[in-house]
Design the sequence.
């Protein structure tokens, strides 16, 4: 049963002390429904982030959130996900009938595993409504560098879907809510962030952030071609924590891949575990880097205090000034916990059954996190950074 979350003034009071409250969303395809449940829990508790940042499916969810009024966000997320959870193609109706019949089965592990496999196979064969559709001809028949020659699916439907669920004018005129999405430049291999605080954001930026090759085609923006940001980094956490000027920041990092897991027992387990490790690694790296930077800042401040009259050489004053602020960062992790019936295709097993399960998981994890109000306290300024994870807390 879905979890009911009541307003949490105790948590809201703590969160109000942060000038920046960022919701940071990883990429992970069909697992993105988990992020929707997390946000629904945040919203029900009365929390309103002022910065949405994401990669791939996280960029899509972030755009929907930033591109709607707070009271419309949950409905917009639900509308988008219910749409793309339906099969596409000419055989959509029969496929929906089959999936509807599966949904009536008891929630037993074997049946759920089979249902996920059917959803993943259907996505590969038919695409997903309003998201992507398979190309009629094999890309191996083309050699002209066109989208038809470099991808298996067409993402044209996604542009219209984004226009339906995202108000891009709102994103680009709203100074109180910020949107950041990341993509990978193809010709130089560089990572680029598109930030509404610095430039206008359109559907093409969101599609580029999720253009995972070789399934989806690259997207051209300002003369450069871009692929999915997850090729380089699957989270924009580092960008948020490195942006200047620094402010006290609460970063709610919603991960769809867990760095922790059991040793594989089958080849399917191996493929799943590889994805988990590959796509979760940058989150750990970002957290470790900000912890290191804060320790260095604290040590540098202490060192300067030991200098007579605290007088730095003139050539070092400007260089070190940005590193001597006392801003703090609080990183609260919400990490999707894979189910025993899920396999390596969990990120493209779209469907109403997995959507409901992922959404409810996010809602439950947000409820558990809210039950620890101290997670949201400002960190000690002598330390500078704090990290929390309700699952790690529960496991000691």
Sequence:
């Amino acid at each position: 049963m879905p979890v009911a979350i009541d307003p949490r003034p105790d948590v809201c009071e703590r969160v109000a002390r942060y000038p920046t409250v960022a919701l940071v969303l990883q990429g992970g395809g069909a697992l993105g429904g988990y992020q929707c449940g997390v946000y629904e829990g945040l919203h029900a508790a009365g929390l309103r982030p002022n910065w949405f940042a994401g990669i791939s499916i996280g960029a899509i969810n972030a755009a929907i959130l930033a591109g709607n009024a707070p009271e419309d966000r949950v409905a917009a997320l639900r509308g988008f996900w219910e749409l793309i959870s339906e099969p596409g193609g000419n055989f959509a109706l029969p496929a929906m009938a089959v999936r509807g019949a599966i949904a009536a089965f008891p929630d037993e592990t074997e049946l759920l595993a089979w249902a996920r496999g059917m959803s993943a196979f259907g996505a590969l064969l038919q695409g997903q409504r309003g998201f992507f559709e398979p190309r009629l001809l094999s890309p191996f028949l083309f050699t002209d560098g066109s989208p038809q020659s470099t991808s298996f699916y067409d993402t044209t439907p996604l542009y219209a879907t984004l226009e339906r669920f995202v108000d891009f004018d709102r994103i680009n005129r709203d100074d109180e809510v910020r949107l950041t999405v990341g993509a990978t430049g193809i010709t130089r291999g560089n990572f680029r962030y598109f930030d509404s605080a610095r430039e206008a954001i359109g559907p093409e930026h969101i599609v580029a952030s999720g253009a995972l090759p070789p399934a989806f085609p690259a997207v051209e923006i300002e003369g450069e071609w871009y692929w999915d940001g997850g090729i380089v980094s699957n989270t924009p956490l580092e960008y948020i924590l490195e942006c200047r000027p620094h402010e006290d920041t609460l970063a709610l990092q919603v991960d769809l891949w867990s760095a922790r897991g059991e040793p594989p027992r089958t080849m399917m387990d191996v493929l799943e575990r590889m994805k988990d490790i590959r796509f979760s690694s940058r989150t750990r790296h970002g957290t470790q880097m900000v912890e290191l930077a804060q320790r260095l800042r604290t040590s540098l401040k202490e060192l300067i205090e030991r200098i007579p009259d605290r007088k730095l050489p003139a050539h070092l004053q400007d260089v070190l000034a940005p590193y001597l602020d006392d801003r703090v960062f609080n990183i609260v992790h919400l990490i999707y916990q894979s189910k025993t019936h899920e396999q390596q295709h969990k990120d493209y097993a779209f469907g109403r059954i997995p959507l409901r399960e992922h959404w409810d998981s996010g809602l439950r994890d947000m409820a558990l996190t809210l039950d620890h109000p101290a997670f949201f306290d400002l960190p000690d300024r002598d330390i500078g950074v704090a990290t929390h994870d309700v699952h790690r807390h529960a496991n000691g």
